[in-house]
Structures are given as C-alpha cells and as structure tokens.
C-alpha cells in the first residue's frame, strides 16, 4: 500500500522505516498536511499524520478525490480531525492510543527536579567557572505533597514514581483508580488539591469543560510558592494568569512541555527568526520557569511503539483485519 507520511522528521523516517520492513511504500514529506500540500498524497491509499497536520473538511475532500481511503494518525489525539467530514468522504481513521506513559511521566519528574535543584542555572554557572551556591537552594521531595490532576495511564505512572520518592500523593479524577488508592494515593476534591499541594501536575485531556483549569481563582487557593507542571495540554493553564502569579511569587516554579499557542512554535527551528509571541517571551524571562517543546513523549521506546502501532494500523486496513487496527470511531 502506498502511504504519504506528512510532517515527517528524520526520527519518524528512521522508526517507521524500521517497523515497516519494506511491506508498504512509505513516501516521506517534511511538510505538514494542508490544502496546498494535500496534492502530495496523489496515488496514495493512505496518509500518515501528526499533531499539527490539518485535517478539516477541505483537506479531507481533496484527499478523498485523490483516492485516499485511510488516515493513520501517529499520535493519540485527533482533535484537529473533522470526524463527520471523514465519515462523509468514506475515509477510515486510526490512531495510536497508547505508546509509553513512562516517557511522559519521567519527563514530568525531570522538569520537577530541574526546577527544584535549579539544574538549568547550575549547569551554566559551572561553565563560567562559578561554583557559588547562592540562589540554588532546593527542597527535599521526600514528604512533600504532590497533586495529580488526571490519573489515567500517564497520571497513574507519575503518581507511582512520586510515591516511590516518598511523597504524599493526592489526586483529582472523576474516575478514581482503585489500584492507585491501594498503592497510597488519596483522591480529593479540586479545592483540597489546590490548597494542600506543594507540586501540582496536569495529566488530564483538554476538553471544553477544563479549559484554563488553572486560572487566577485556582491560583489564589494554592500554597504560596507552589510548583506547577504541565505536560498535558497548553489550554489547561491560563498562561497570563500564571505569569501574574510568577510576578507576585504565588507561583514559585513553572515547568511546561506544552503551551497554549505551541502550534506556531514547537517542533521547528525558528532560531533565525524574531519571536513574535510576547506572552511566551515573558515566560522565558523568569529564572524559575523551565520550558521544553512538547518533547515529553520523545523516547526511543515511545517512538518504536508509535511506529509499530501505526504499521499495524496500515496492515490491518490493507488486510481488512479490524483486530489489528486502533480505529477512531465516528461520533
Ligand atoms: P488517559 O485517557 O489514560 O487518562 C486521562 C485521565 O484524565 C482519565 O483518568 C480521565 O478520567 C481523567 N480526566 C478527564 N477529564 C478530567 C478532568 N477535567 N479533571 C481531572 N481528570 C480528568 O490519558 P493519558 O494517556 O494518561 O494522557 C493524558 C494526557 O496527556 C493526554 O490527554 C494528553 O493531553 C497528554 N499527553 C502529553 C504528551 C506530551 O508529549 N507532552 C504525550 C501524550 C499525552
């Protein structure tokens, strides 16, 4: 089967080619999928897409006219896909619902440790022959209270890591996980989580209901100097409110792997351009803010799992074997 792979980076090409083992004809395109680039899928039965590819009704119509029958998302989320238009065009959709919760949970811990022990600042000091410790004072994680919002695959993995470090872990999730409770996690109401946590970490999906879950009101209920970590989705956190919190020192530390307006920034090298996003630019001025560009998923194990499931989805479609496929069901 001929497959156009959009938004493909060298690492995508390496992992997908290895998982493919020559079975399908994979044609890699660096460009993102949109109405202009959709022509590249001519003669292809399938396209393979990532988080910033456009899959609105206009693009789906062009793909369908060119004979595309399958869209294989190589990620879990599919909020940018017009599901009704895909169904109307007779296009099948698949995704990778799970790859490595450890990748994201461990990156979350990396952000916490980096902020707490000021590793970003310590690294540069040593390179400047400056071994002074002033300003690098951290705190023991042991005994601190960590609030986890969303205890699905990633949140549960993260909660167990923090229990292992001797933290008290409290959580908020509309569907509590009994095994986690047995392991020592206490489920509490959101207000209790805000007021009791030394560290708060977001691991729930972004929905219309929880947009700006962390806002000015929530910040007021938190412990002064709280550490906030967001590896979930940018829209869960009101960035401007958190900047005000950083300025007043209500927020003591901020670690982000996702950002509300990340689609204009992340995954690309903009180092020769001027940064146009003033809110993001302000975040970069704080010594107690660490940002990574949506890289929490980026481990060898996660990329191998993404490639493996994507290839199963392609082969399952070719063989019309639904047991191999992870279908995105129509609404
Ligand atoms: P999951 O579906 O296994 O778990 C999500 C959990 O959140 C569920 O237990 C659900 O009940 C809970 N939940 C839903 N709405 C909630 C709310 N308003 N408040 C509290 N809990 C709520 O999902 P998984 O695999 O654990 O992923 C979680 C999120 O992590 C994803 O939705 C995605 O946004 C983000 N993610 C980030 C990545 C990165 O590279 N930074 C990579 C993969 C996922």
UniProtKB/TrEMBL annotation:
Keywords: NAD, Oxidoreductase. InterPro entries: Ado_hCys_hydrolase_NAD-bd, D-isomer_2_OHA_DH_cat_dom, D-isomer_DH_CS, D-isomer_DH_CS1, D-isomer_DH_NAD-bd, D-LDH-like, NAD(P)-bd_dom_sf. It holds the Pfam family 2-Hacid_dh_C. Residues 129-291 form the S-adenosyl-L-homocysteine hydrolase NAD binding domain. The keyword Oxidoreductase applies. GO terms for molecular function: D-lactate dehydrogenase (NAD+) activity; NAD binding. Belongs to the D-isomer specific 2-hydroxyacid dehydrogenase family. This is D-lactate dehydrogenase.
């Amino acid at each position: 089967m001929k497959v156009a792979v959009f938004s493909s980076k060298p690492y995508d090409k390496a992992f997908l080619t290895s998982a493919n083992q020559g079975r399908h004809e994979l044609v890699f395109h660096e460009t993102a999928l949109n109405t202009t680039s959709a022509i590249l899928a001519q003669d292809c039965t399938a396209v393979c897409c990532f988080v910033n590819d456009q899959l609105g009704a206009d693009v789906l119509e062009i793909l369908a006219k060119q004979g595309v029958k399958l869209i294989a998302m190589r990620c879990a989320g599919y909020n940018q896909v017009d599901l009704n238009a895909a169904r109307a065009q007779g296009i099948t959709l698949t995704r990778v619902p799970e790859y490595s919760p450890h990748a994201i949970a461990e990156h979350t811990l990396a952000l916490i440790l980096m902020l707490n022990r000021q590793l970003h600042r310590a690294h540069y000091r040593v390179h400047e022959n400056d071994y002074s410790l002033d300003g690098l004072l951290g705190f023991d994680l042991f005994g601190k209270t960590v609030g986890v919002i969303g205890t699905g695959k990633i949140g549960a993995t993260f909660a167990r890591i923090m229990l292992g470090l001797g933290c008290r872990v409290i959580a908020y999730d509309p569907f509590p996980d009994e095994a986690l409770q047995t392991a020592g996690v206490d489920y509490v109401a959101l207000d209790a989580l805000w007021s009791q946590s030394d560290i708060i970490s977001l691991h729930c999906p972004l929905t219309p209901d929880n947009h700006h879950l962390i806002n000015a009101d929530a910040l007021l209920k938190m412990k002064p100097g709280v550490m906030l970590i967001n590896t979930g989705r940018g829209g869960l956190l009101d960035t401007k409110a958190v900047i005000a919190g950083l300025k007043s020192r209500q927020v003591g530390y901020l670690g982000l792997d996702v950002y509300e307006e990340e689609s204009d920034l992340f995954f690309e090298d903009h180092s020769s351009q001027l940064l146009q996003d003033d809110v993001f630019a302000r975040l970069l001025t704080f010594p107690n803010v660490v940002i990574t560009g949506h890289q929490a998923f980026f481990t060898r194990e996660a990329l191998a799992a993404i490639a493996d499931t994507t290839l199963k989805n392609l082969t399952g479609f070719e063989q019309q074997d639904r047991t191999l496929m992870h279908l995105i069901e129509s609404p």
